[in-house]
Amino acid sequence: MPDEVAVEILKLVDGERSIALIADDLASRFDAPRELIVRDTAAALEDLSLRGALEL
Known about the structure:
With 56 residues, the chain is mainly α. The protein has helices at 4-12, 19-29, 34-50. It has one domain. It is built from three helices and no strands. Helix 1 (4-12) crosses helix 2. It is globular, with a radius of gyration of 11 Å.
């Protein structure tokens, strides 16, 4: 089963929102420090980019 947060990150990727805006949205819905969400979001997007799943 896909990671719930990873799925939410992908739902927010629209080519317009920055990582900071995506993190703000996630921080409002998940109980975690914003700094951690920013770091995890950036890492997830970088991993997906390296796998060819999206372009940064």
